[in-house]
Amino acid sequence: MNTHQHSTPELTKNQGLVYDSLSHAGGPLSAYAILDDLRDHGIRAPLQVYRALDKLLEMGLVHRLESLNSFVACQHPDCDARATMLFAICSKCSCVSELAGEDLEAQLKSLAASDGFTVQAATIELRGICSACGQSAA
After folding, report:
1. Can you tell me the distance from the alpha carbon of 65 to that of 74, in angstroms, rounded to the nearest whole number?
2. Which pTM was predicted?
3. Which residue in 5, 60, 67, 112 has its CB near the most CB atoms, within 10 A?
């Protein structure tokens, strides 16, 4: 997973712990996996994790993967400027790549506009096999 350093705003202790947990994870984490990871750091209630995640989502530092009911740290420092989020999720190793899809974003907006719909935001999750798992199977 490629992680780029964000210029992170001032985070509370819990937000910082949750963000660090996601940043150092080898893949997406559920809120309960984050809670398990942070119990030794004083986070003991799911509500503490969910509050931190809500704020980190609002700041654009993490993303929610709906199909996995999990979260990942943002991999692109400029993604808050994009309305379309694109994720490639490996079905074998669960690694997640955040992809920039400006051409796709324009095509989606055009397609929606032809139906009289205005896109405000879109999250696309692609499922498949990553290059590392594809090479090991070959």
Report:
1. 11
2. 0.82
3. 60
